[in-house]
Amino acid sequence: MIPHRRSGGFTFPKELDPAKVGGPEGQLYHLEDDPSETRNLWDEEPEVVEELRGMLQAVQDAGH
Questions:
Q1: What is the 3-state secondary structure (H, E, C) of 37-48?
Q2: DSSP 2
Q3: What global pTM score does this model have?
């Protein structure tokens, strides 16, 4: 999960326009099924996004 619309630094940057109306807030890919990151699942999997956000927040709150 990348909680914004730019590359997370592990792959080539995606050319995403954050001002695009109706675009997803972030990026979520199923890397086993889509290793080229061609299908952003952010809007299709909101429960996964929320679970991962919670996990990320817990790590950040722990000072990591």
A1: CCCCCCCCCHHH
A2: B
A3: 0.67
